Amino acid sequence: MTDSMIDLLSFDKSKIKFVLQHDIHTSARQTLRSCGYSSIDYFDSSLQEPEFSSAIAQARFLGIRGETKLTQEVLDRAEKLLAIGCFGSTTDNIDVEAAKQRGIPVFSAMYTDKTSIAELVIAEAIVLTQNVARNFSLDQAATTTPVDVANIKHDSAVYGKRWGIVGYGDSGAQVGLLAEAMGMEVVFSDVLALGPRGRARQVPLEELLRSSDIVSIHVPHASSKKPLIDQTEIAHMKTAGVLINASPMQIVNLKALADAVESQRLLGAALNTVELTSKPTSDASIDRSAYQRLGAMQNVLLLPHYAGTEQRTQYHIGIEVAQKLVKFSDTGSTVGAVNFPQVALPDLAPGQRRLLHIHRNQPGVLTCINRIFSNHQVNVSGQFLQTSAELGYVIFDIENEYYSQFAISQLKQVHGTIHCRILF
Fold first, then answer.
1. In the prediction, which pLDDT does 145 show?
2. Do the Cβ atoms of 20 and 42 come closer than 8 Å?
3. Which residues 6+ apart lie within 8 Å of 76 measured at CB?
4. Does residue 404 carry a pLDDT above 70?
5. What is the number of other CB atoms lying within 10 angstroms of the CB of residue 36?
6. 332 touches 45 (CB < 8 A)
7. Measured at the alpha carbon of residue 372, what is the angle toward residues 369 and 378, in degrees to the nearest 5?
8. pLDDT: is 206 or 401 the higher one?
9. N-terminal to C-terminal alpha carbon distance within the chain
10. Which of 390, 272, 344, 336 has the alpha carbon at shortest distance from 91?
11. How many C-alpha atoms does 382 have within 13 Å on its Cβ side?
């Protein structure tokens, strides 16, 4: 068997190198070891280039979280990389498109941290809708002065109200399910036409803003320099509405929001953002004056984006993402990958080999592969295929007795091939 053929075949599990960021929860490495993977290295998240690229150069599987950046240039140097696990609440720190073009799936926690984020958003909505800060101040709580409930002029119950979700990804959808459970009607707006979870309905953004009592925003980043929720969008919102931003602060025009809350056109607002965990006013893209005005208002909640960072959540994220990496290594399954065709695969039957072929989604690839198998009398007992707009992922289970090393080596020469390997 030639050296090039050895590169195509599975490794012994003890030789498959996982490289994890040191602050990933220990549940991840425990999961890997329990599944037979013992070659686990760690790197410090403070590493800069070129030390970072050097630390991950030998990695077959890489685990990162937080602010560690995986750029196209870093991926170019990680020539052995097969898959990436994101153990944080977002994949914004990874160039997922560059990873896809290299045939590298990126796995993340689909629901574990999203539930924690959704719970925080729901709690904020209740606090703001019931106007807790304004109606029940700490000064009142420290005295025996009774609260004059007759002066509470708005309907404080969330039951029966409409919740509008801007950005219907995993976090937004999870918020919708919890809101429905509390008896609320849920509508959502997204740039994509998406299937709803529960009884939610997709509507245009303007309709959502005009009709919703509570609006929460769950988009990953701004697609332009103009805020998604600008002065016009805030003006469209219902009087006495509540706005909750679980996205970067640049998504919302902070001055327009401060004006609306200060004039009591909006009942209140909440900002849960990564920027608040450090020094928000040091970011030149954030309106410092508006931020300070919002911070002085009783009915505005400024919170760090801590949901998903607590130890319980990190423990479950460690297990979930590590299991997805193991499943991809053991079977080729890509369920849970954010940039890859989703394929759920069974365990490989005894005596068989499984070929994983990642290619550009272009005509003729499958024809060429099947011709190679036919020419070399390779019997295929199972075939699985999924494609996205740019990528194709096809898996063949091959009966051992018909296995041809020469046929497999030829697959690398098929036009459009990005990567292929054998499991056995």
1. 53
2. yes
3. none
4. no
5. 13
6. no
7. 105
8. 206
9. 16
10. 336
11. 14
CB crowding 295-306: b at 16 or more within 10 Å, else e: eebebbbbeebb
**H-run or E-run covering 380:** strand 380-387
Q: What is the mean pLDDT of residues 113-139?
A: 78
What DSSP state is assigned to residue 18?
A: E
Residue-wise pLDDT tens digits, 146-203: 555 445 555 678 999 999 999 998 889 999 999 999 999 999 999 988 888 999 999 9
Peptide bond between residue 50 and the one before it cis (omega within 30 degrees of 0): yes
Residue type, 378: V
Tally of residues, the chain:
424
pLDDT of residue 66: 75
Residue appearing with tokens 């809101």: 179
Task: Record the tokens describing residue 12, joined without a space.
Answer: 């012994």
CB-CB contact of 357 with 369 (8 Å):
yes
69-89 tens-digit pLDDT = 899 999 999 999 999 999 976
> Is the model's pLDDT at 3 over the cut of 70?
no
369 residue type, one letter: I
- The separation between CA 73 and the C-alpha centre of its own chain, rounded to angstroms, equals 22
The DSSP string of 259-323 is HHHHTTSEEEEEEEEGGGGS-GGG-TTS-HHHHHHHHT-TTEEEEES-TT-SHHHHHHHHHHHHH
Task: Answer for the pair 109, 317: CB distance below 8 angstroms, yes or no.
Answer: yes
Backbone phi, psi, residue 101, to 5°:
-65, -20
Q: For residue 140, give both structure tokens.
A: 């009142």
